[in-house]
Amino acid sequence: MQLDATDRKILRELQSDAGRSLDEIARVVGASKTPVWNRIRKMREAGIIGPQVVIADAEKLGFEACFFVLVRTSEHDTGWQARFLHAVRIRPEVLEAHRLAGDIDYILKVRVANARAYDVFYQSLIAEVKVHNVTALLSMEEIKNTTALPV
């Protein structure tokens, strides 16, 4: 699906607040409600727009510590990788996980209440899967956090 300028305007509006009414989004975009709805539907069908979710405030919910966890492994076989990916995917503390190129094999973004909660997470992870080295970096301040793509 090729996106035109109106599709991009709609996406920008949805990324800023998808909870607004269709009437309001159409007004801001400068189109009527039905064509805007049809464009949104087509973008959903094409997989450009995924599920709508609520972004909760982690700190207000008691998850005050954000750790970036750098994982190095000496194992690279498919069995180890399957166990590691399963261990990461089942843990709700892991908000993001990425396999990297370079010296670090994986980076995890982990949200927990405090350092003690991180240690519980860490101990359970290394009990389940062998890793060569783990480095945890505590985020002191979140400077920018967005899910919006620059469309």
Automatic annotation (TrEMBL):
The keyword Transcription regulation applies. It comes from Salipiger aestuarii. This is Lrp/AsnC family transcriptional regulator. Residues 3-64 form the HTH asnC-type domain. Transmembrane segments: none annotated. InterPro entries: ArsR-like_HTH, AsnC-type_HTH_dom, Dimeric_a/b-barrel, Tscrpt_reg_AsnC-like, Tscrpt_reg_AsnC/Lrp_C, WH-like_DNA-bd_sf, WH_DNA-bd_sf. One of its GO terms (cellular component) is cytosol. The lineage of its organism: Bacteria, Pseudomonadati, Pseudomonadota, Alphaproteobacteria, Rhodobacterales. GO terms for biological process: regulation of DNA-templated transcription; response to amino acid. PROSITE patterns: HTH_ASNC_2. Keywords: DNA-binding, Transcription, Transcription regulation. Pfam families: AsnC_trans_reg, HTH_24. One of its GO terms (molecular function) is sequence-specific DNA binding. The keyword Coiled coil does not apply.
